[in-house]
Structures are given as C-alpha cells and as structure tokens.
Amino acid sequence: MAVERLHLPFRLHMHMPPAAQTRLFGILAWCALLLGPLLSWMLVFAFTSDDQCGSWDLRCTGQAILCTATCWLFGSLSAIAALFRHEPHDTAVPALGLNLVALAGLIGAIVLISKFG
C-alpha cells in the first residue's frame, strides 16, 4: 500500500490529454527560440555590475551572445528529441528549422567578423 502511494506522483502524466503529453519537447524548442535570447540578455546584464558592463561592454555582449547561442542549440536539440519521440511535426519541424537558421546566422556572423576583423 505504501509503495503504491509512492508511485502515484509518477503516474500523473497518464492523466494528461494526449496532445499536451506529446508536445513537450516541441514547446521547449519554441521557448528556447523565442524566450532564450531575451532571458540570456536580461540575465547577463542584470547579474553583471555596472562597472564591468558599462554601456554595452564587449565582454558582457559576448557573454550574452554565447548564452543566446546556447539557447538556440538547446532548442535545436529539443526539437530533434521531439522528432525522435514522434511528436507532431507541426510543432517540432518549424522550431528545428528556425533554431538552426538562427544558430547558423550567428555562426556565420562570427566567422565573417573574425575573417575581416
């Protein structure tokens, strides 16, 4: 009886509707795409003192850009996980494409700046 109560919270996912149960990684990918850059820029500039960041210091901007790239990489991996889990393609495929396009654009900009900078 005690064992049955212990496993009860782990069975709560069985009571979710199928649509909500199967779109978890697709929604995570969209959140990483849309909210990741906003949160990373806010966190970097909120937790760094003004004497280090000043007015858009290069160090803080670089940290924010790397955090944004990490979010987009996480979003791409979440979308790939959604596809492997056979989640609906209408959520996972656009999120994967947009995360990869954003990540490729950022990498392209870094290569362009390093080549001509």
From TrEMBL:
Record keyword Transmembrane helix present: yes
Spans through the membrane: 62-84, 96-114
Keyword terms: Membrane, Transmembrane, Transmembrane helix
Name of the protein: Transmembrane protein
Source organism of the structure: Lysobacter firmicutimachus
